[in-house]
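TODO from last week: model Glucose 1-dehydrogenase.
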Amino acid sequence: MTLQGKVALVTGGSRGLGKAMVEAFATEGADVIIASRKLENCEKLAHQIREQHGRRALPFAANVSDWTQCEGLVEAAYAAFGRVDVLVNNAGLSPLYPSLDQVSEALWDKIFDINLKGPFRLASLIGTRMAAGDGGSIINISSVAAIRPAPEHLPYAAAKAGLNTLTEGLAQAFAPRVRVNTIQCGAFLTDVSQAWTPEVTERLADSAALRRCAEPNEVVGAALYFASEAASFTTGAVLRVDGGVR
């Protein structure tokens, strides 16, 4: 198994893309830390991981927009496992708003705190420990919105563009022992997509060269690549997993 003996921490790990990655990492032999705001969901998935894969799993409630909670998450992870080999900054948020002039300062801050500030803090804390130890891999989950911004998600697009920039800078900061890369996702049919209207789903599918939206498990190949030694000479990279969005 490609991640045998490794420890992976996934934020937003109890559902959607995060859940798919947690399950894939456990399948490949990793112990996992499942972090999200709702402890009950984390505990449910942790139980499943233990039962189905025989791996250790730590559920932890944390809002990554709060740096104190980020620090608590890191301390809990190292207390339980003594190491983190793979960090996936997956937690994100893209709220709807009626128009750009009605984006409040509080909403702007909330979007940036979750999508950019939290990943920076977690990557800085864990990356520093990785660099001083046995190394590791940090994977940021970005969005095609970073390069194809639209008015209906402009703050989110700006935050994800910032995450892309952080990826390259952190790759330099923690080299040569730590690799930092980004998966830049297109439209995935997670539980969040259940709120999309049929028109929105059709528009997103038509915007991709593959003419469809993705299933959550279609992020797994990229995640396993970056997490494993298969990507031993890849850092500072942004990999588009978007079906060829125009």
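Done. The longest helix spans residues 105-132.
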